[in-house]
C-alpha cells in the first residue's frame, strides 16, 4: 500500500506481550486430540499470543502444522512455536504487518513453501484504541484500525485463495462489539461490523469452490490486547464483569469455536458466527 499507516505500537504499546502479562491467559487445550485436522496446514494471524496462541495450540493438538503470523512480539511468537512443536507438529514464525498487502502475499508464499500447502486461514489479528469522544479519533488512527482489522482480512484472503480448495476453511474473528456496540471503541466496533458482513458475503462467494467461510465473535477475553492499550487502565479491574458469567473469558474457551469451524464437524455451516461471550445474549 502506498499510503500504509505504520502500526501504532509506540502510542498504545499494542498489541502487547503475553510474556509480561499477569495473570497469564490460559491457552492450554483441555482435552486430548482426535486428529480432526490431521495433515492440514493452518495460517493464523495474531498467533503469537491471546486467542491466536490458543487456536494454534489446539489446532496443533488436532494434527495441523501452523504458520504463526504476528507483528513484532518475537518472544511470544517463539513461545507459540515451542507449544506447537511440543504437540509434535511443525511451526514457522512470520513477522510483519497484515495491513500491508505485500506482506500478506509473502506470508502465504512462505507458508506454502515451508509447510507444503494451506488448508485453513484464520484471520485473527486486530487492534483497538479506546476513545470516549469521537473527535479524539485521529485520521491516522481510523485508517490504521481499518487497515489492520478489515483490510488485513481482505489481503490475507486474496493472497491465500489460489492455495485453498475443496474442504478448506476461512475463519474470521469479529467481536461482541459488532452486535451490542461499544461507546469507547467506535472505530474498532465498526471494523468488526465490516468483518461480519465480509464473512457472510465471502461465504456465498466461495462456496462453489468448496471453501467454507465462518466467523467467531468473542466477548471480553483476557489477552495482552486489553491491558496494553486496548482498555483504559482504570477499566481493567472491571473487565468482563458485566457479562452474565461475571468474568472475562480465557483464550482456551474461545479456541474450540475456531476448531469446530475449521474441521468437518461444521461441514454444513457457512456464513455463520459463533458467540463465546459469557452469556451476553444481546449479541445473538
Question: Can you characterise this structure?
Answer:
- There is one protein chain.
- This protein has 284 residues and is an alpha/beta fold.
- The chain has a single domain, classed as Rossmann fold.
- Helices cover 38% and strands 11% of the residues.
- A seven-stranded parallel beta sheet has the order 3-2-1-4-5-6-7, sandwiched between helices.
- Helix 2 (50-61) packs parallel to helix 3 (74-86) and helix 4 (101-115) runs parallel beside helix 5 (139-160).
- The longest helix is centred in the middle third of the chain and has 22 residues, at 139-160.
- The radius of gyration is 17 Å and the shape is globular.
- The termini are far apart.
**What is Rg?**
17 Å
**Number of H/I helices:** 9
Shape by Cα distribution: globular
Sheet with the most strands, sense and barrel status = 7 strands, parallel
What count of structural domains?
1
CATH superfamily: NAD(P)-binding Rossmann-like Domain
Beta-strand proportion: 5-15%
N-to-C span: 36 Å
Uncertain residue ranges: none
**Which whole number gives the mean pLDDT?**
91
Strands, total number: 7
What is the level 1 CATH name?
Alpha Beta
Strand arrangement, major sheet? 3-2-1-4-5-6-7
Structural class: alpha/beta
Q: State the share of residues found in helices, binned by percent.
A: 25-40%
Classify the fold: give the CATH topology.
Answer: Rossmann fold
What pattern of helices and strands is seen along the backbone?
A: HEHEHEHEHEHHEHHE
* CATH architecture title: 3-Layer(aba) Sandwich
Amino acid at each position: 500500500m502506498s499510503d500504509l499507516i505504520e502500526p501504532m505500537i509506540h502510542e498504545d504499546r499494542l498489541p502487547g506481550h503475553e510474556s509480561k502479562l499477569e495473570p497469564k491467559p490460559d491457552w492450554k487445550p483441555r482435552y486430548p486430540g482426535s486428529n480432526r485436522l490431521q495433515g492440514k496446514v493452518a495460517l493464523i494471524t495474531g498467533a503469537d499470543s491471546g486467542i491466536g496462541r490458543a487456536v494454534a495450540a489446539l489446532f496443533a493438538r488436532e494434527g495441523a502444522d501452523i504458520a504463526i503470523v504476528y507483528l513484532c512480539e518475537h518472544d511470544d511468537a517463539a513461545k507459540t512455536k515451542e507449544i506447537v512443536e511440543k504437540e509434535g507438529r511443525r511451526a514457522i514464525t512470520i513477522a510483519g504487518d497484515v495491513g500491508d498487502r505485500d506482506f500478506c502475499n509473502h506470508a502465504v508464499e512462505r507458508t506454502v513453501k515451508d509447510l507444503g500447502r494451506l488448508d485453513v486461514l484464520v484471520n485473527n489479528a486486530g487492534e483497538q484504541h479506546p476513545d470516549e469522544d469521537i473527535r479524539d479519533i485521529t485520521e491516522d488512527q481510523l485508517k490504521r484500525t481499518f487497515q489492520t482489522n478489515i483490510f488485513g482480512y481482505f489481503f490475507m484472503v486474496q493472497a491465500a485463495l489460489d492455495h485453498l480448495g475443496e474442504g478448506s476453511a476461512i475463519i474470521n474473528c469479529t467481536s461482541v462489539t459488532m452486535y451490542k456496540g461499544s461507546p469507547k471503541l467506535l472505530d474498532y466496533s465498526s471494523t468488526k461490523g465490516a468483518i461480519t458482513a465480509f464473512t457472510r458475503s465471502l461465504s456465498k462467494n466461495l462456496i462453489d469452490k468448496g471453501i467454507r467461510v465462518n466467523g467467531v465473535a468473542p466477548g471480553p477475553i483476557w489477552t495482552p490486547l486489553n491491558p496494553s492499550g486496548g482498555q483504559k487502565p482504570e477499566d481493567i479491574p472491571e473487565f468482563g464483569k458485566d457479562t452474565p458469567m461475571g468474568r472475562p473469558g480465557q483464550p482456551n474457551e474461545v479456541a474450540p469455536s475456531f476448531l469446530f469451524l475449521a474441521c468437518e464437524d461444521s461441514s454444513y455451516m457457512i456464513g455463520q458466527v459463533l458467540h463465546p461471550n459469557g452469556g451476553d445474549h444481546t449479541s445473538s
